[in-house]
């Protein structure tokens, strides 16, 4: 047995879980927590690159069935847990691990907390499992764990408003998780298996004689769970609340999780329910509403992290629009856009964490005049704003351009206009935020001598530079990522 | 009316009614604790749907006329072969889903109740209209 | 006409529904918590009758003993009467 055989995809889920338990255990001893967290971060950053590609399966239960056309009863195996690991999953998990490490490292500046790092590790584990999983059992369990992890990261802030947001999020998450479980129950009761590939085959065979009613009910229930987990209308308000009440460095990580889980869950729902006639129209409608509502609410916000949160929701809506058009070009463009936009929004959230360190407030009426006090961070923020709005030479320009092109090719010219208008409105909202933070006068919140010696740490700035470099790099060579995405979309076999 | 055959459909009906009652409680009730009780009822109903869908009326592992005193099914030679048993046994897969779901929901409720206590200590009231009054800053 | 086994099942179903409806219309929250415990116990018996004894034991411990316990701690630390 070679050493390379040890790195199976299940390790990507098992290692952060074990790390979370250990970090929780040694909470309170600051130096031990710091050392162990650094070790875990290094391993978590390395693991996606050295794990082998392939399908990894374990578990199953036997059932008996007639051999085709005869009366011979044969004992077969229903696969239970299946993990798929390919290039796209590697890119998703590697990017999430990068941002999670950034969140832990930036948080350790103010307070070393083992429980905080444990919750972030739990978030990595659950998001990795949902991205890789090929069976609905795994998805349900790890979506519930994801809800707990995100709520715990909001509770860690400690203010009463954060507690209110966390309680609302947990109640809605409990109802959405039960809805997904009910959909899974209907699928299990009708077909007897949980494996998505097997279900896909059986549903395709059955679809030749017509769509069954139970399948439509199961689709509605699982669709409701998908809406909650990806922050679309009508759950966009609670998702943006969660992003804004948590610390900005960990909000960068959370919005990455949401975008990738949006894509991963959509792929699973597509392979199960593609035969239902109005499925693509439903996804398109919800995504257009999220895009428009997100941008409109972003324009009227007075708190910077809430503005960023609504822009993140609008960009998730744009990804959903590409998925809803459902041609090969648009789906590959929108998966590409999910990767690009996660990086671009992370730059802006990290700049917000720098501002928070100095001013301790995010209220745009009170801040101002930080242009010369924060070094080169305003420059990186401005480049980040260009990246999110989709300007060349950034990678988001390539992906948004391809979504717009695919929309006009597929016969939706009105969508083209809508997406361009959304881009413009995003740019306007972000420039308003930039102006309120850096350019305008108004420093009533801190006295003069405190402002003179207020410093900020460089850690967030280094990461912003790294992400900007990756954005520009992918912007100049989009085919390096895009060809893998296109191969992934072709391998789905349904679009 | 064959009441014996109505057992499984009536279990489904009970589960559906539990989900509906829980959903009503989450949406319309004012007290925070009753909303959390509503989430409990929803998850109880969904778990009952899962287990009921796996129900199968087992005849017997060994048929009664072959049973003698002092014989357990492990030592009895007339134990039915696995394929025949598998067609008559209850479906085991929903049990795994339900066990996981019950345990995860208990931990979610523990966090929710701790948050409810903390919010009561700040606001002095458990009524949702007082706690969640939206204040636009 | 109706076997004793199935009759017990119907009684437990009725207990579960009745207990949950009563729990939601109570003004005294401690009584509501005890009624939810009763409903959890009825559902645990129902799991045993549906040939899933492992789930029955888990539901009996968690849903009829632990969950009403932490609900009761919450009611004790907040307020007993609904306003």
* Straight-line distance between termini of chain C: 49 Å
Query: Order of strands side by side in the largest beta sheet of chain A?
Result: 1-2
Helix content class of chain A: over 70%
Distance between the termini of chain A: 39 Å
Q: Percent of residues of chain A in beta strands?
A: 5-15%
Radius of gyration of chain C: 14 Å
User: Radius of gyration of chain A, rounded?
Assistant: 23 Å
Helix content of chain C: over 70%
The assembly state of the depicted protein chains is heterotrimer
Instruction: Decide which structural class fits the backbone of chain C.
Output: mainly alpha
Overall mean pLDDT of chain C: 91
Biggest sheet overview of chain C? none
The biggest chain-chain interface is: B-C, 47 and 43 residues
Major sheet of chain A:
2 strands, antiparallel
Given the C-alpha coordinates, what overall shape of chain C results? flat
Q: Provide a count of the helices of chain C.
A: 3
Q: What's the rounded overall pLDDT mean of chain A?
A: 88
Strands of chain C, count: 0
Question: Which residue ranges of chain A are poorly predicted, with pLDDT under 50 across at least 5 consecutive positions?
Answer: none
Task: Please explain how this structure is put together.
- The complex is a heterotrimer of chains A (495), B (137) and C (83).
- Chain A has a domain at 278-495.
- Helix content of chain A is 73%, strand content 5%.
- Chain A contains 19 helices and two strands.
- The longest helix of chain A is centred in the middle third of the chain and has 32 residues, at 160-191.
- The model of chain A has no long low-confidence stretch (mean pLDDT 88).
- Chain B has helices at residues 7-28, 32-53, 82-88, 93-123, 128-131.
- The mean pLDDT of chain B is 81.
- In chain B, helix 1 (7-28) runs antiparallel to helix 2 (32-53) and helix 2 packs antiparallel against helix 4.
- Chain B is elongated.
- Chain B has five helices and no strands.
- Chain B has one domain (4-55, 90-136): Helix Hairpins (Orthogonal Bundle).
- Chain B starts with 6 loop residues before the first helix and ends in a 6-residue tail after the last helix.
- Chain C has a domain at 28-83.
- Helices cover 81% and strands 0% of the residues of chain C.
- Chain C has helices at residues 4-24, 29-49, 53-77.
- The longest helix of chain C has 25 residues, at 53-77.
- The N and C termini of chain C lie far apart (49 Å).
- The model of chain C has no long low-confidence stretch (mean pLDDT 91).
- Chains in contact: A-B, B-C.
């Amino acid at each position: 047995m070679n050493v390379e055989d040890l790195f199976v995809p299940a390790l990507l889920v098992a290692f952060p879980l074990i790390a979370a338990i250990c970090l929780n255990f040694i909470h309170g001893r600051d130096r031990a927590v710091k050392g162990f967290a650094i070790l875990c971060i290094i391993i978590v950053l390395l693991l996606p690159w050295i794990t082998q590609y392939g399908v990894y399966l374990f578990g199953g239960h036997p059932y008996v069935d007639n051999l085709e056309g005869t009366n011979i009863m044969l004992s077969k195996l229903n696969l239970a847990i299946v993990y798929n690991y390919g290039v796209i999953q590697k890119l998703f998990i590697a990017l999430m691990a990068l941002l999670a490490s950034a969140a832990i490292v930036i948080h350790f500046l103010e307070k070393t907390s083992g429980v905080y790092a444990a919750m972030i590790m739990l978030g990595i584990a659950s998001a990795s499992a949902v991205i890789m999983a090929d069976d609905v059992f795994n998805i349900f369990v790890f979506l519930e764990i994801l809800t707990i992890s995100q709520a715990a990261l909001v509770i860690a802030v400690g203010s009463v408003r954060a507690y209110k947001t966390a309680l609302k999020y947990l109640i809605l998450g409990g109802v959405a998780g039960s809805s997904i479980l009910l959909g899974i129950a209907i699928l299990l009761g009708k077909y007897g298996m949980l494996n998505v590939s097997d279900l896909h085959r059986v549903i395709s065979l059955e679809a030749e004689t017509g769509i069954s009613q139970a399948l439509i009910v199961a689709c509605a229930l699982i669709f409701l769970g998908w809406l909650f987990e990806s922050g679309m209308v009508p759950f966009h308000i609670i998702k943006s609340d969660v992003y804004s009440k948590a610390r900005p460095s960990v909000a960068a990580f959370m919005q990455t999780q949401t975008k990738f889980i949006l894509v991963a869950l959509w792929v699973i729902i597509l392979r199960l329910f593609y035969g239902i006639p109005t499925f693509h129209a439903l996804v398109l409608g919800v995504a257009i509403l999220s895009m428009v509502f997100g941008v409109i609410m972003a324009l009227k916000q007075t708190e910077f992290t809430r503005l960023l949160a609504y822009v993140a929701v609008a960009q998730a809506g744009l990804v959903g629009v590409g998925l809803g058009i459902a041609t090969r070009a648009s789906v590959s463009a929108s998966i590409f856009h999910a990767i690009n936009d996660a990086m671009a929004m992370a730059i802006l959230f990290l700049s917000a964490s720098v501002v928070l360190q100095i001013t301790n407030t995010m209220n745009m009426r009170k801040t101002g005049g930080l242009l010369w006090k924060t070094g080169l961070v305003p420059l990186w923020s401005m480049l980040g704003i260009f990246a999110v709005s989709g300007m060349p030479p950034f990678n988001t320009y390539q992906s948004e351009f391809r979504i717009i092109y695919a929309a006009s090719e597929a016969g939706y010219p009105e969508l083209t206009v809508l997406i361009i208008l959304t881009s413009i409105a995003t740019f306007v909202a972000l420039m308003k935020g930039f102006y309120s933070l850096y350019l305008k006068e108004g420093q009533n919140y801190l006295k003069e001598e405190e402002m003179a010696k207020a410093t900020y740490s460089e850690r967030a700035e280094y990461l912003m530079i790294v992400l900007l470099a990756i954005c520009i790099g992918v912007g100049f060579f989009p085919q390096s990522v895009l060809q893998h995405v296109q191969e992934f979309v072709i391998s789905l076999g349904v679009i | 009316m064959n009441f014996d055959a109505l057992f499984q459909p009536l279990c489904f009906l009970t589960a559906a009614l539990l989900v509906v009652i829980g959903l009503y409680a989450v949406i319309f009730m004012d007290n925070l604790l009753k909303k959390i009780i509503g989430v409990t009822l929803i998850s109880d109903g969904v778990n009952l749907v899962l287990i009921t869908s796996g129900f199968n009326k087992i005849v017997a592992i060994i048929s009664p006329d072959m049973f003698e005193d002092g014989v357990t099914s492990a030592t009895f030679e007339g134990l039915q072969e696995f394929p025949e048993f598998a067609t008559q046994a209850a479906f085991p897969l929903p049990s795994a889903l339900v066990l996981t779901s019950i345990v995860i929901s208990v931990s979610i409720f523990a966090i929710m109740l701790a948050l409810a206590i903390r919010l009561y200590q700040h606001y002095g009231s458990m009524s949702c209209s007082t706690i969640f009054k939206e204040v636009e800053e | 006409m109706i076997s004793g086994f199935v009759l017990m099942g119907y009684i437990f179903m009725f207990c579960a529904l009745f207990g949950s409806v009563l729990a939601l219309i109570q003004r005294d929250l401690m009584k509501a918590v005890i009624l939810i415990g009763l409903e959890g116990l009825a559902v645990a018996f129902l799991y045993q009758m549906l040939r899933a004894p492992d789930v029955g034991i888990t539901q009996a411990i968690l849903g009829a003993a632990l969950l009403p316990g932490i609900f009761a701690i919450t009611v004790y630390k907040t307020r007993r009467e609904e306003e």
